[in-house]
Amino acid sequence: MSYNFLVATWGDHRHLGPTLTAAQQLRAKGHDVRFIARADARASVETAGFHFATWQRKPQISPIARTNAPLQYAFDHLLFGPAAAQGADISDEIRRATTDAVLTDMPLFGAVLAAEAEHVPCALLSPTISIRPLPGQPPIGSCLPAPSTPEDRVAVEAASNRFVAVMNEWLPMLNEARASLQLGPSADVLELFDRPARVLIAMSVKCTLIVRHDNQGQEPAA
Q1: For the chain, first and last CA: distance in Å?
Q2: Which residues are bridge partners to 34 per DSSP?
Q3: How many Cα atoms within 13 Å fall on the side-chain side of residue 132?
């Protein structure tokens, strides 16, 4: 059976490799695929033979970070801050054309919210590492090695808990975005990663994938 996929990507033409590869694989299996991305990605997307739409709304961001540290800046300006505007754009695009599923770069939290609001299955794709801490794996920015001793595992778990606690400082911003899409509030930012039907993580050039099913199990088969 053929499905209509909307692929959402955050970067310019230099960051399209993973999503273009996924889109080409979907198309090779007979699915229809179109993109929503930055305007400067249009040429690369259309050259690859995919229909293209771009973001329409400019995010209105009120940063909450009290530091310009890279991770906190990313929380403000890449992950949580633009979620409301991007979610509204993706909702518009889902309504504009038949959309059976959304495949999105992991940083585009607004895509996850829009898919939830429009009752469309969603898959998150990370070409490198997971923003959400994974069991037994050091979180982003911790500079910890992979654990090999009980003490290491305790340190990694503590670092993961601290990372999630920091992310939850942005929960009010996330819930503002949810409210703008007529969604109820979340109790924890990790719910962002629990709602999608799939979480795909390409860990190497061999594209090892971690795949997680949602509880409902209702998503198009790629």
Answers
A1: 9
A2: 6, 51
A3: 19
pTM: 0.86
Instruction: Report the distance separating Cα 12 and Cα 23, nearest Å.
Output: 16
Q: How far apart (Å, rounded) are the C-alpha atoms in residues 59 and 82?
A: 5
Give CB contacts under 8 A, 24+ apart, made by 213-218. 218/121
CATH of the structural domain 4-201, one choice from 3.50.50.60, 3.40.50.1970, 3.40.50.10950, 3.40.50.2000: 3.40.50.2000
> Tokens 């009752």 identify what position?
119
Furthest-apart CA atoms within the chain: distance in Å: 53
Q: Among residues 83, 76, 57, which one has the least CA distance to residue 169?
A: 76
Question: How are beta strands 51-54 and 32-37 bridged, if at all?
Answer: parallel
CA–CA distance, 126 with 181 (Å, rounded to integer): 24
Span 110-157, pLDDT tens digits: 999 999 999 999 999 988 788 999 899 999 888 899 899 999 999 999
Degrees, nearest 5: CA angle 38-29-204? 65
3-state secondary structure of 6: strand
Q: What Cα–Cα distance (Å) separates residue 115 from each residue in 20, 32, 52, 100?
A: 20, 18, 18, 10
pLDDT tens sequence across 164-212: 999 999 999 999 999 999 999 999 999 999 999 999 987 654 433 443 4
- Per DSSP, the three-state class of 126 is strand
